[in-house]
Amino acid sequence: MAPWPTLASREQVAERIQVKLTAYAAGQIDDALAAATRTIARKCQRPGGLHPTLRTIYRDWPNSDDVTSWRLWIGPDEAISVVSLTSGGVALTGSLLEDNASGPPYKQLQLDRSGSQFFGAGASSTPQRNIALTLWTGTTDDQVPAGALAANVSTTSATTITVTNAAAVGVGNQLIIDAERMIVTDRASATTGTTLSSGIDAATSTVSVPVASGAAVNVGEMILVDAERMRVVDLTGNTLIVKRAQEGSVLAAHLSGATVYAPRLLTVARGASGTTAATHTAATTITRWYPSPDATRLAIAEAITTLQQDAAAWARMIGEGENAREVSARGLKDARESVYSTGLRRKGRVYTV
Q1: Is the pLDDT at 160 greater than 90, yes or no?
Q2: Which residues, including other chains, have CB under 8 Å from residue 218's CB and lie 6 or more apart?
Q3: Which one, of 231, 234, 215, lies nearest residue 263 by Cα?
Q4: pTM metric for this prediction
Q5: Which of 13, 161, 229, 231 is deepest in the core (most CB within 10 A)?
């Protein structure tokens, strides 16, 4: 099964439960998020997921679902946008996605009736698969900036990339670089290109960290100096303001000239979501798919609930017998309703015979 981007990142879950990201803990979080993402998609009746995916679908014409000559029901995944449309091998243009008052996602495609194009065009000898529709399916393709490439991606088989801003990217995210999409499956440290410009002592009150170049570090990044991890919460010129001894690391003194690292080396699944792996040049802008905030919140809540139940051997219950029920936060019900009662959940079509 092709990997899916998760609706939240590994780091978002880890920050909320304050867990040290060991390989074991990271794997548990990844599994819980993957399960939550697929469960949410299934309950939203979106078998292809909520994330954008490029695909080609084929439909017969005449279409048994609808005899209207200018309308085509898209299918269970619905559409974000159309790339191309042909009927009988003839390219059709001027199509409209509906319902334009509530989409995306869109449930149907209509030909512009002011023109002369129609379904069933061309010299096709059979109505089977007469229509070919290449489109982006899913619920939304909102994107946010996520830094840039720090080095060339010189081959289509490369499985790692280096980025400029670790704070903008997490494990599970879908990245968009040129026309290719990638899914981040892991992260490792890479040099930021700067060093400490003077030493710092092993005191929690020492939160100002002088570096040779403040421009080399981003607010929100988890930096690594020697064996201590620090969260950058602000910066002024060449001085970082940090939280010391993060993610279970130990407070320590550091000498001038120590290299500053950040988790910018990403392991990625290439050519994801129907796209094709390609080469890319350093400094190319990266964007990240931005799921619905409600869906992200629910994925985090479901993942945390699963992790806590696992830790309790699935014994977090109150009541007895038929009255026994799972212990979970009251807000989980509200989070579920905020997703399953909105446009993210696909409505079934009803036919009258």
Answers
A1: yes
A2: 147, 164, 165, 166, 167, 168, 232, 262
A3: 231
A4: 0.87
A5: 13
